[in-house]
């Protein structure tokens, strides 16, 4: 009897298991059918559009959190303003008092958290040690950047003895200096891009190409440390690195958008947002070139224009519409309708 009771209990338990398994299979099959019907109700183009706004490289919050960014401070392109909102920028200041003042006013931002190092001019960072994932460039049209440098060191803009303009004014007294030869040939920016003699043209090309030794001509540092110089020491060393860009012409818009894109709030504080930090360039107006001289300047700086265009094209944080508009504006600034037209016209100018 005891054996029969156990057998009946075993059969009942087995029956319950089979029934439960049947209902589980039925339930999950119905759930799967329901999911497919819901998924098919969304049009494919809607799914594609929902992903189209994501940047091409790093797209998720977790991946963004793992970034290690080096700020590449391109001279005469609003880099001092950016430097002031980054902890790495504050720490790069050599004077202790300026460093402490910068840190005291430093706003909290996601951008500042992720920027671990600072690169300006010839203090090249040790990339193998830092292992950056990304490089942040501040960019400006190469001709505008060059004109800013010209005004920056022009002897007529000497106001305070420690400024580059006053150093240039002092060097003018010595005929053996490059500064004397440069301003003897080019008292105006127009003459710099339209040199009248072969002697002056050779001097002009040294600045255009950045082919000087900065230890011998420190006042030309921002022309020597050009876009090609910065790319050679960053992207060419680590070609798989992400490129981030902020434009001088839309500086605060780009900084706020970049901070938000990195997972921050996009806010830097009322006392900081919209401000500009300069080395005195606010005290004078940069030279303005006419159409002919502007075209000549673009041809003189054509290699730099190409690097500038490539940086914009590869910027992970800029959308395609912005890139296209910047590319069009850059070439129209030179008086051409397309890059092909500019290259062809410059080739004709160089061969004449």
UniProtKB/TrEMBL annotation:
<feature type="transmembrane region" description="Helical">
    <location>
        <begin position="12"/>
        <end position="32"/>
    </location>
</feature>
<protein>
    <recommendedName>
        <fullName>Sulfotransferase domain-containing protein</fullName>
    </recommendedName>
</protein>
<keyword id="KW-0812">Transmembrane</keyword>
<keyword id="KW-0472">Membrane</keyword>
<keyword id="KW-1133">Transmembrane helix</keyword>
<dbReference type="InterPro" id="IPR027417">
    <property type="entry name" value="P-loop_NTPase"/>
</dbReference>
